[in-house]
Amino acid sequence: MAPSATIEASNGTTGIAAPGRQSYSIALIPGDGIGIEVIHAGQVVLKHLAKAIDTFDLSFEEFDWSSARYKKEGKYLPDDALEQVRRFNAIIFGAVGAPDVPDHISLWGLRLALCQPLQQYANVRPTRILRGTTSPLSNCPRGDLDWVIVRENSEGEYAGHGGTSHIGQEWSVATEVSIFTHHGCERIMRFAFETARSRPAKHLTVVTKSNAQRNGMVFWDNVAASVAKDFPDVKWEKMLVDAMTTRMVLKPKSIDTIVATNLHADILSDLAAALAGSIGIAPTSNLDPTRKNPSMFEPIHGSAFDITGLGVANPVATFWTSAEMLRWLGQPDAADLLMLAVENVTDSGIKTQDLGGNAKTVEVTEAVCAEISKLTSKDGKKT
Q1: Structural domain range at position 33
Q2: What is the pLDDT of residues 5-48, one digit of tens each?
Q3: Does the chain have fewer CB atoms within 10 Å around its N or its C terminus?
Q4: Neighbouring-strand partners of residue 285
Q5: Which are the contacts of 24, defined by CB distance < 8 A and separation ≥ 6?
């Protein structure tokens, strides 16, 4: 069975429910729009998977932190939000954003308000073409597009530094300051090199724009070169972000692991999802590699209010995200089984409209649950 993801397994966390049996508590933050629909689908599949395998336990608690709460109470999170989520082993997050709330308010009010203080500095986005799906790239076999994008998730262009002054005047001014610290750059580079080392190709591309951004990006490049000395077994290179977009389209097989800044990886990872077939299949892990805080797992497709309530949202991104979470928690066999079930379903033609099918969210969810049952025997072992 091919592994479904590239995130390293846990060293072992959580409490013990019974001798040799682990129990994981999961915080659910469905958020807005289709986030609510796909997170509930993910919970159904995870419960079914845990019951079918019967080697670990999952418990869930849902939080109503959303734009609806913001419009009612004036804030997305309660004052003790961080203390509340720190009680959990992991967080599954749906989406944030509503048509009548400015995007910068919703993003900084919820998602970034959790990621930054919880030091989830490594955003990991695996991308590959699933069985039964096709890439919009002509003549691109499944194995030619198999990437991991590592995104710096705590500073850079999204550090939150800057401001506006003289508002309403002709001389009004706004600044958005990118922050690159040695600590922040080094830790994400080490994580990226370790990720590349764990994959067969052992190949890392460091994305930059140091030809034009002569301070922060040159600093970024220099830290990469310094860290690379500790990984002689990893082949690495650097590439300008604009050139990287063309390479992703024209030479997908030449790419394996990518590391980029907060902004650059944000853009490249959405392109990657589209090239793999749909943003509706793309997972994300917001990781604190130190494991001092819970990590947060989310599909990257956003709230998509244009299809909210129609029952057509693709839950595959949430299922893949859930598999990434299981792997991070130390359950790689469960993660592999879940992704095998997902790909068996997509390969059978049961797909939502974004993948060229006509299945509803609930139909894909039920099909994955049924496939999990087929793949497990009565004693909880794979057949």
Answers
A1: 22-120+284-378
A2: 344 433 333 333 445 689 999 999 999 999 999 999 999 999 99
A3: C
A4: 124, 297
A5: 14, 56, 57, 58, 59, 89, 90, 329
d(CA 36, CA 311): 11
Q: Are residues 221 and 306 in the same domain?
A: no
pLDDT tens figures, 121-173? 999 999 999 999 999 998 888 889 999 999 999 999 999 999 999 999 999 99
Strand (E) positions, 180-282? 203-208, 235-240, 257-260
Q: Are residues 103 and 139 in the same domain?
A: no
Residue 356 placed within a domain: yes
* Distance between CA atoms of residues 187 and 139, nearest Å: 37
Q: Are residues 259 and 327 in the same domain?
A: no
Domain count within the chain: 2
pLDDT, residue 21, reads 83
Can you tell me the distance from the alpha carbon of 94 to that of 96, in angstroms, rounded to the nearest whole number? Answer: 7
What sign does the CA torsion over 308, 265, 325, 102 have? negative
Residue 169 is assigned to a structural domain of this protein: no
Indicate the pTM of the whole model. Answer: 0.91
Q: Are residues 83 and 199 in the same domain?
A: no
| Neighbouring residues of 219: CB distance < 8 A, sequence distance ≥ 6 | 180, 182, 185
